[in-house]
Amino acid sequence: MTRSDDTDETKRQAERFRRVRDAHQSEVAEDYVEMIADLIAQTGEARVVDLSGRLGVTNATVTNTIQRLQRDGLVVSRPYRSIFLTAKGYDLATAARLRHHIVRDFLCSLGVDRETAESDAEGIEHHVSEATLDAFRQHLDLMRKRRA
Amino acid sequence: MTRSDDTDETKRQAERFRRVRDAHQSEVAEDYVEMIADLIAQTGEARVVDLSGRLGVTNATVTNTIQRLQRDGLVVSRPYRSIFLTAKGYDLATAARLRHHIVRDFLCSLGVDRETAESDAEGIEHHVSEATLDAFRQHLDLMRKRRA
DNA sequence: CTGATTTATTAGCCTCGACTAACAATGTTG
DNA sequence: CAACATTGTTAGTCGAGGCTAATAAATCAG
């Protein structure tokens, strides 16, 4: 046995960290498509300046990121035109929004104030597994029934 | 009014995203110091190979990161020697571990299985505000009393 | 105590996601 | 419709955080 043995727990731990790193990879993509979907729903179109304002980054950063998203088949955009979602992008946006709302509502149901819930949900949503999301949903249902 | 008006909500949203980005900045640091503290507590010392095994990255990556942490005053390490925490690093580790455990235990208390709770907590812990952490604590207390 | 094994470091590379500054296209308005 | 304001893109830079390959140091076994 070498000094640093690879126990099962060590491997599981490594796997957990790998998952967190993977989640980080998709975070930006999810945030963008979710916001693009919301913008289209609310204002009819999504433009670079809208995204940069809401994300708190520069136009240049958004243009850059949009190009990556286009490369990855999530959005379509022609130069100087507004941004559209592909079917794939739309699906991702829908899933992201659903998760986002569940996390936010769940935090609210614990008594966390709205703005904090909104803020924390933004970070948390990308790290919530299906199992945990189910638990959140169940808790929400419980609270709703209790109030009824 | 220009096309893309900066409403209050837009500004708040931008602020939320900024906070998430800030949290990302400290994530790696927190994960490292927490793990270093645990290793020292459990095995007497923290070495590069221990960290790389548990984090699921290469030795080179760990060495690199440790240099950054040293630059930031969180750890002390001499070449080919094991790694120590500064007072600042120790404090950060302690705070991180506390949060980590609350998040994990909270998820468990919702009925999420241990391994999933452990895994999700790893990602979630960095995005939980004090207010939300308090809500988690309260919920945990409630569950404990209910069982008693 | 020397040779083999393990561990750590260095060098060089990559992508992502941020920035600024300069420039190009679009849109608005006098 | 021409000038100006707004928006979008490009080019170039940076740090974080990954990687591999080569090398160096430390440790262990015989």
Explained architecture:
Two copies of one chain form a homodimer. With 148 residues, chain A is an all-alpha fold. Chain A is 74% helix and 3% strand. In chain A, helix 1 packs across helix 4 and helix 4 packs across helix 6. Chain A is globular. At the A-B interface, helix 1, helix 2, helix 5 and helix 6 of A face helix 1, helix 2, helix 5 and helix 6 of B. The structure holds a DNA duplex (30 and 30 nucleotides).
Strand content of chain A: under 5%
- Note the overall shape of chain A: globular
Radius of gyration of chain A: 19 Å
Annotation field: number of helices of chain A: 6
Order the strands across the largest sheet of chain A as they lie in space. Answer: 1-2
Report on the biggest sheet of chain A: 2 strands, antiparallel
Order of helices and strands of chain A: HHHEEHHH
Q: Quaternary arrangement of the chains shown? A: homodimer
Helix content of chain A: over 70%
Mean pLDDT across the residues of chain A is 95
Give a quick set of tags describing it:
homodimer; 148 residues; mainly alpha; two-stranded antiparallel sheet; 2 strands; 74% helix; globular; DNA-binding
